[in-house]
Amino acid sequence: MTQTQAPVRGGQFLTSAATPDEVFIREDLTDEQRLFGQTAAEFMQKEVLPVVQRLYEHDWTLTRRLLKRAADLDLLRLEVPPAYGGLGLDLISASYVGEQIAINPSFGGSLGAHTSIGTLPLVYFGNDEQKARYLPRLSNGELVAAYALTETQSGSDALAARTAATLTPDGRHYLLNGQKMWITNGGFADLFTIFAKVDGEKFTAFLVERGMGVVSGRDETKLGLDGSSTTALTLDNVKVPVENVLGTIGQGHRVAFNILNLGRVKLGARNMSGVRMALNHSVKYARERRQFGKAIAEFGLIKQKLAGMAIRGFVGDAMSYRALGDVDRALDSGDRADGPLVLKTIEGFSVECSINKVWTSEALAWAVDEGVQVFGGNGYSREFPLERMYRDARITRIYEGTNEINRMLVPTRLLKQQPHLFTAERARAALAAQSPVPSPQSLLSAEREYVARLKRLAIALLGHASATYGDGLKEEQEVLAQIADIVIETYATESALARAEKMAARGDGRASLATDIAQAYTNEAADRVAVATRQVVAALNTRGADPSFAAGVWRLTAHAGVDGIAALRRIANAVIEAGKYPL
Ligand SMILES: Cc1cc2nc3c(=O)[nH]c(=O)nc-3n(C[C@H](O)[C@H](O)[C@H](O)COP(=O)(O)OP(=O)(O)OC[C@H]3O[C@@H](n4cnc5c(N)ncnc54)[C@H](O)[C@@H]3O)c2cc1C
Predict the structure, then answer these.
(1) 123-130 mean pLDDT
(2) Of 27, 87, 137, 166, which one's alpha carbon is 20 to 30 angstroms from that of 319?
(3) pLDDT band for position 441 (cuts 50, 70, 90)
(4) Average model confidence (pLDDT) for the chain?
(5) Which atom of ligand 1 is closest in space to residue 180's alpha carbon?
(6) Is the domain of 413 the same as that of 533?
(7) Same domain for 27 and 100?
(8) What is residue 3's predicted lDDT score, i.e. its pLDDT?
(9) What is the ipTM of this complex?
């Protein structure tokens, strides 16, 4: 990390403006970070993509060999501390590498499950002896890791797990009994982080070697990710030494939830890799495919799709790298070797993690869906790339916490982190406050002024909803989800503006395209915010809210915007001219 600004605290984005010099953008990647990415990209192009068909046929020996090869290139040790054979790199570097690996989501899933949810529980919760025993062998690809939380009866409600851990009479082992579901790398992993309840109640993580008695089920027949192994695990008196308890007995939820946060902060960059790929395939096809005597890329409605993908690629990168930069900067201000401090810091950014998870997975869904449409009938064919991309993308809205769960986390976490901010009094103050006068110097000043109002809108709506429903608010999921969407759009829009402004300030040749994208996105966001606001206000009115509240709220949602049709055409033309994602 080369940033020198003061660290940003998690959840702070609603109360302070992100200035361009403060946010990390993809264009800020250092040569060293790019070099790791290049190594990963070449590995994928030269060694994985040529043999990927064999992965789709479940050749897991090949998956293991490729993982070993990735280890030889240092790609499995990026986040492992140097004391245990790792490189101890920052999150930005790890995410940028993840972005390259994600060009094949199946192999990306295997590698990601190993390096992230498979290895990081040990990095952050293991004791010295456990780390010394396993981390060097996980880093060099000798062992493959997996993470087993989900069960048939407990998915989103992970703490309802039924797998039991019983101490043997001699006090030296736990016997694990139960079944896990949907475990990535389940068919061939050697080391599992398995969650089970000691004495039927103390939710606990265990490090379990396959040789201790883990039995894998058959590979699931899935919608997508055909080239990654997903199986159930049967645990029938699996004998785990007490030394293999990971962390503290009864504190397994800390392992589970912190590892999910760590995964989510990096997920955005991977999803954006998919958006860029969908666009690259789509624009190539649209330039070649001719109907009615011209390339389909010349039709306005196809241009709209290409522009929409480029916008999502730009905005999603802006959000992901902003969050990664903020977390890395916060981590740099402490000791990265201090596991509990690292986790506490990342937990502080849990709202940003959930925002990125929801937004980028839905942007990817939109991009692959419209990509299929650009390909027409060929989009539906296995002979063309979009069909697989469409199937592979679907999981991103389900795993790492479903989007429903993450949507709920956005407002509920905000309320927990900053209860003083979301009160009836602060809601009234947010409505009454004056907007800053737009600076005529910036092309994006109208958008900046709108985002400042959006923040007040989010504070006003959540504060008012909290005062209206009291403790019952958590049962009003539909209201919470609309407020979550307003918060998400606030973060997305501001991130896009800051990235475009930063590019303009440094004279980047693509700055005017970035400005078009930021303005076009603000237009779209304003439409969605208006719809969400109408629904929340109507629900609050039904509960007898003060009518002046509604009037005040509408003042905050107005955004004149730019000519969106013209902006999208310019963006699409830039894509068509470049023949690929142009940023
Ligand atoms: C390909 C693949 C790989 C996976 N890899 C792993 C892995 O390596 N390790 C692992 O442990 N797990 C893994 N999973 C499991 C995955 O994390 C779960 O599928 C996910 O957490 C959802 O749980 P569930 O399937 O039980 O759905 P459920 O929890 O039953 O949810 C069903 C629906 O109900 C909704 N819902 C549930 N609760 C609420 C609520 N409170 N409010 C509103 N809506 C709600 C959900 O959002 C969803 O739409 C994987 C799954 C797949 C498909």
Answers:
(1) 96
(2) 87
(3) low
(4) 95
(5) 11
(6) yes
(7) yes
(8) 47
(9) 0.99
Does residue 3 belong to any structural domain of this protein? no
Question: What is the CB < 6 Å shell around ligand 1?
Answer: 113, 147-150, 155-156, 182-184, 222, 225, 230, 395, 398-399, 402, 404-405, 477
Of 80, 94, 89, 14, the residue nearest 463 (C-alpha): 14
| pLDDT per residue as tens digits for the range 469-492 | 999 999 999 999 999 999 999 999
Q: Which domain holds residue 25?
A: 12-143
Distances (CA, A) of 487 to 133, 197, 258, 331: 44, 36, 22, 24
Residues 6+ apart with CB under 8 A from 382: 388
Tokens of 224: 């997508």
Q: Are residues 162 and 107 in the same domain?
A: no
pLDDT digits (tens, 9 = 90+) for 336-370: 888 888 888 889 999 999 999 999 999 999 999 99
Last residue of a domain, one of 143, 175, 193: 143
Output the six-digit token pair for 118: 């498979």
Q: Does any domain span residue 208?
A: yes
233 and 334, same domain (yes or no): no
Is 400 known to be catalytic? yes
Model pLDDT for residues 319-330, shown as the tens digit of each residue: 999 999 999 999
Is the same domain home to 291 and 381? Answer: yes
The residue out of 397, 425, 452 marking a domain boundary is 397
Summarize pLDDT for 101-110 with one digit per residue, the tens: 999 999 999 9
Residue 2 lies in a domain: no
Report which protein residue has its CA nearest ligand 1's atom 43: 404
State the CATH number of the domain containing residue 540: 1.20.140.10
Task: Tally the residues of the chain.
Answer: 583
CA distances from 389 to 58, 104, 176, 222 (A): 18, 9, 38, 14
% of the chain beyond a pLDDT of 90: 90
Catalytic residue, candidates 22, 352, 387, 400: 400
| Tally of domains in the chain | 4
Q: What residue's CA is closest to ligand 1, atom 29?
A: 156
Task: Answer yes or no: do 452 and 547 share one domain.
Answer: yes
Query: Does 6 map to a domain?
Result: no
Ligand 1 atom at minimum distance from 158 CA: 21
Say whether both 227 and 348 belong to one domain. Answer: no
- Quote the ligand 1 centre to 368 CA distance (angstroms): 22
Task: Give the span between the Cα atoms of 534 and 532, in whole angstroms.
Answer: 5
Separation CA 91–CA 324 (nearest Å): 6
Query: Would you state the structure tokens that stand for residue 174, as one six-digit string?
Result: 């736990």
Ligand 1 site-directed mutation target among 157, 362, 402, 407, most atoms within 8 Å of CB: 402
